[in-house]
Design a protein that fits this description.
Strand content of chain A: 15-25%
Shape of chain B: elongated
CATH class of the largest domain in chain B: Alpha Beta
Order of helices and strands of chain A: HHEEEEEEEH
Organism (chain A): Phascolarctos cinereus (Koala)
Number of strands of chain A: 7
Number of helices of chain A: 3
Main location (chain A): membrane
Strand order of the largest sheet of chain A: 2-5-4-7-6
Subcellular location (chain A): Cell membrane
Number of strands of chain B: 21
Shape of chain A: globular
Largest sheet of chain A: 5 strands, antiparallel
GO molecular function (chain A): acetylcholine receptor inhibitor activity; chylomicron binding; lipase binding
CATH architecture of the largest domain in chain B: 3-Layer(aba) Sandwich
CATH class of one domain in chain A: Mainly Beta
Radius of gyration of chain A: 19 Å
Oligomer: heterodimer
Keywords (chain A): Cell membrane, Glycoprotein, Lipoprotein, Membrane, Signal, Transmembrane, Transmembrane helix
Number of domains of chain B: 2
Structural class of chain A: alpha+beta
Distance between the termini of chain A: 9 Å
Amino acid sequence: MKVFITILLAALLCLDQGSEQKETKSADESREEDYDYKDNDDDEEDDDEVEIKHIPYEGSLECYTCESESIEEHCNKIKTCAPSQTFCKTIITRGNADSNYLTTFSAWCSDTCKEATKIIEGTHVTVNCCQSDMCNPLLVDGKASDTNAKANCGGILTGVGVTTLFMLLCSWLGRDL
Amino acid sequence: MKGKALLLVVLGLWFQSLNMSSGGVAAAASNRRRGNEDFGDIESKFALRTPEEITEDRCHLVPGDINSVADCNFNHSSKTFVVIHGWTVTGMYESWVPKLVGALFKREPDSNVIVVDWLTRAQQHYPVSAGYTKLVGQDVAKFINWLAEQFNYPLENVHLLGYSLGAHAAGIAGSLTNKKVNRITGLDPAGPNFEYAEATSRLSPDDADFVDVLHTFTRGSPGRSIGIQKPVGHVDIYPNGGFFQPGCNLFDAINQIATKGLGDMDQLVKCSHERSIHLFIDSLLNEENPSKAYRCSSKEAFDKGLCLSCRKNRCNNMGYEINKVRAKRSSKMYLKTRSQMPYKVFHYQVKLHFLGTESVTQTNQVLLLSLYGTIAESEEISVTLPEMSTNQTYSFLIYTEIDLGELLMVKLQWKSDSFFSWSDWWSNTGFGIQKIRVKAGETQKKVVFCSREKISHLKKGKEPVVFVKCYDKSLSKKAV
């Protein structure tokens, strides 16, 4: 029974964490740190002008969002997309990086998306597109599928979560381990 | 040897005539009385060409002679292009005339294409011919007014295209018609005698409902340059900065003499000047892929990649498919082109931010950049940065001749100063780079490329570093 409670607590905690992240991230886009551009020009401003802080509305798409993370890092930030952004996009890159072989992963809300696979100078680049909430989790085999990721509370517990859930199920059935 | 001498002679004549500018204009104009309503004083001839006969003037429309219009099969329900040539050494039509006529018919098969023949006036000394543009403009205006009055032909259907001196003749014609014509396209309007002229005696925005101008050969001091430097239309486009066009340098000229002989001599001398026509022809023939030009405060700002915006009409199509944007003050627009047809290129702004713990500054450094897209990859693009300093961001423009599709990856290398440089070998000059930001002008997309290891180290004379797309965004809803 103790085990059951701990697992439940863990599950609750992780759910909580998930929703928190969602709140903070939905505020404004990863408002790319604006450098002090040396060649500033009046034309620079229009990049930012477009980025109107949007209020999440019923039916806003939610996507995992991260920039070039390795498999170990877990892409677990969730972002509410702007109305025009109807795709969750992921790019998986496999191949030798500057020092060693790496698999890296980027994910974001996008207004256009076209699936593609290309090998560029020995590096394998795959673009995946999907259009349902959190449909772009980082999966170990390097393929983002359409699994409903809401159930397993983010990418954190994809590995641990499955076993936990299994244990949860077992205890639910009253068979104390 | 003979060829070189001939080239020099022609060049000499050309420049001499340009420099002899001021005098003759007024005299030439005052020699003739301003015409009455009769058409007796019209010296220019108006040949209606057909898709079958794009080279020869077989049928002339004669102002005052109603039958001539029917005889030439003028189509009253179609639009009309009026092509006005410029100054000529030979007294003959130049080879671009049939090319432009053919392209106009290809794009608008039912249209009327009229070529204005003012060759006798156009083969005088340049200043004399320049003065004649007033009379040619009057001739053209009388002809157009007659078409409008006699046949109720709508002037909204009239598009004048003038090259060099012909552009100013078109402007004067437009200022004298009873109602404004739809459009005047000025193809590198002549500079000498016109750079400082009043708006009434040259091409200006008031001469038509819409005036668009291509400036392709404005090298030299103002008033001396073959093409006019200042903007004279609603939209003024300066391809490749407007000074000079790719593929037009002396080396290319010698190369062409070697392969094609001296037949096209006059073409070589005016390569950049005439490029304006070929850019327009390109826009007629390559309907689906118009080249885009971008509004910018200066050529220098454009070359830094700072002007690839399409918001608020800041970009426009070059040539036939231009959007009729009339800004309060005329706007200069820029783009890069290839050296031959199709001229379209794809523009990108690249922004780099150099990180480092100790402050380093290097000057005149060469970076090699390759872009990889879903369709193709670019060649290695060489960029010279006047300065590279720690914790500074630099922006520059690059362009590719082919469509790469959606960008996926960028490769960046820092060239060493010389082939084998001891200083590069020993020192470990380098900067950290986290991200490369790229803005694509043609697709109006902003793309961020991330280092695969959070931060990559760009070292002088060492291996290239690779950045993979990690974010993208469309800048405008209209973008394709």
